[in-house]
Amino acid sequence: MRISVVGLGLIGGSMALDLKANGFASEIIGVDYNEEHCDEALSIKLVDRILSIDLALEQSEVMILATPVQHIVKLLPEVLNKVKSQVIIDVGSTKYPASECVRDHPSRGNYVATHPMAGTEFSGPTAAIKNLFRNKVAIFCDVDLSSKKAIYIANDIFDCLGMPIVKMTSKQHDLHTAYVSHISHVSSFALALTVLKKEKDAQNIFNLASGGFDSTVRLAKSSPEMWTPILAQNAKNIISVLDNYISELIQFRKAIETQDTDALNRIIGEANKIRKILKDPR
Amino acid sequence: MRISVVGLGLIGGSMALDLKANGFASEIIGVDYNEEHCDEALSIKLVDRILSIDLALEQSEVMILATPVQHIVKLLPEVLNKVKSQVIIDVGSTKYPASECVRDHPSRGNYVATHPMAGTEFSGPTAAIKNLFRNKVAIFCDVDLSSKKAIYIANDIFDCLGMPIVKMTSKQHDLHTAYVSHISHVSSFALALTVLKKEKDAQNIFNLASGGFDSTVRLAKSSPEMWTPILAQNAKNIISVLDNYISELIQFRKAIETQDTDALNRIIGEANKIRKILKDPR
Fold first, then answer.
1. Given A100, B36, B45, B224, which residue has the most CB atoms within 10 angstroms?
2. In Å, how far is A230's CA from the nearest CA of chain B?
3. How many whole angstroms separate alpha carbon A127 and alpha carbon A66?
4. Contact B68, B7 (CB under 8 A)
5. Residue A207 pLDDT grade (very low, low, confident, very high; cuts 50, 70, 90)
6. Using CB atoms, which residue from A179, A214, A261 is nearest to B199?
7. If contacts are CB pairs under 8 Å, which of residues 112-141 in chain A contact chain B?
8. For position A208, what pLDDT does the model report?
9. Are B212 and A185 in contact, with CB atoms under 8 Å apart?
């Protein structure tokens, strides 16, 4: 099957690698407005050819939209205007704006709204890695608006990537990812800013980072190109959970300030419940 | 050299493993008020014998205090009251209260205040692992109050663990660890609480955790036994950095709410500077 990937970054590039490696894709056509990324993707063999988005659509059976989310809502209607029998899959981190912008499109059936829940803090074609997705969950949204054929092919693709599929509406998706994934990024970006401002000595940060800062701040390395549009598109849900987060911190602050060890024990004990949910093997 | 370890948890246990494995310790004597931990430590061969703290002190050349920090400030003066030529090393995560409580003790020279900057989110004797400390930094505090012999032996021990040594005052230590390590734990505990309250469906948390939540929340699995006394002892420094953190979140919230993409790009771009400081190899 000939597959085109629009947006040759971490996610699109890693999908290309796996789909080519396991033989699902006979050819990967790359599309990216960034010429440097196109050259890199060709040179490290992420893609076989680079084409314009229109030619790529004409010549492939499946097109994966893997650009930052503000481009997906722009590209998706344009692509559906020109689509024939191809299946269009987007893999953006917000789902309601994309699904909504083509809800009544005559070719809506050709489109599947997905979100593979995997990533690293790196970006660009050279960040692509094999097996990024294996045993992580892929979310499929608003599946009743997609044709059976489109869902069938999307199922095959994510199966090839090693991802179990969970279905929900795009509205539910944006709520739940705000609650779990997006707030983690906000918390991590703000932590990096705080430490950078408070601790002027970079050597101290480096020396003390292995006390836990390194893992908590990992997501703060994520790029503004990807995250600014996600935060803007999912603002309402993120604000809601961010307000809760700030309240928790203020309560925590009070327990620390008054050295209320009973309250601190209770707060930390409650927080520890996350261990069971994340099914820690220890 | 015969070494006693008081507090058979992650840190004390992991030190015991390495010091025994590389031959530095001829025998490890374990001390713990928790009998179950004593039995576990014996059965997994973390320690060779279990003794009371008084007998352990009599029979060893070095005693490592690796209990939660509220016990260190209680045990340290008692141990120094009875010390002869032994070297006493504490490895707690706060340093000013410990160093201060024996500042004028006649045997102060026998004591070295240290903090090996390594750990995991697990606790108890079974959490002990080999090479936990390798290539992480050990902080030595107020070294001018320790005797040359005590510093010499402490140097040898941390050298055996593979740790480069950085010196600062105990006051500086507590400030810098609040700025980097302790705030990371507060941020992570509060994140876990927020997500547990907001997202009632544990399966959703599990499914979406690989979107970054898993690493950001790792520290929230840390135990109240260890962290409540750290937060209480270092309250003033932690409150100061926590206030900055809450301010950053409020500014971030404003940029998200107004969908101010310029501000979001700027905030995230600033946060990304942490990448260089953590000397990310990519």
1. B224
2. 10
3. 14
4. yes
5. confident
6. A179
7. 117-119, 121-122, 127, 136-137, 139
8. 87
9. yes
> Min CA distance, B42 vs chain A (Å)?
20
The answer to whether residue B85 neighbours chain A at the CB level (below 8 Å) is no
If we measure between CA atoms, which residue out of B281, B173, B271, B275 comes closest to residue B230?
B173
Verify whether the Cβ–Cβ distance A244 to B270 is below 8 Å: no
Using DSSP's 3-state secondary structure scheme, residue A52 falls into: coil
B138, B161 Cβ separation under 8 angstroms: yes
**Rounded-to-integer distance, Cα B121 and Cα B45, Å:** 22
β-pairing verdict for B111-116 and B138-141: antiparallel
ipTM value, please give it: 0.91
pLDDT at position B281, please? 36
Order of strands across the sheet that contains B2-6: B49-50, B27-31, B2-6, B62-65, B87-90, B111-116, B138-141, B165-168
Q: Both tokens of residue A134?
A: 């294996």
pLDDT (tens digit per residue) in B23-54: 999 999 999 999 999 999 999 999 999 999 99
Q: Is the pLDDT of residue B280 over 80?
A: no
Identify the CATH assignment for B173-277 out of 3.10.20.880, 1.10.8.10, 1.10.3660.10, 3.40.50.720: 1.10.3660.10
Question: What is the tens place of the pLDDT at every residue in A147-195?
Answer: 999 999 999 999 999 999 999 999 999 999 999 999 999 999 999 999 9
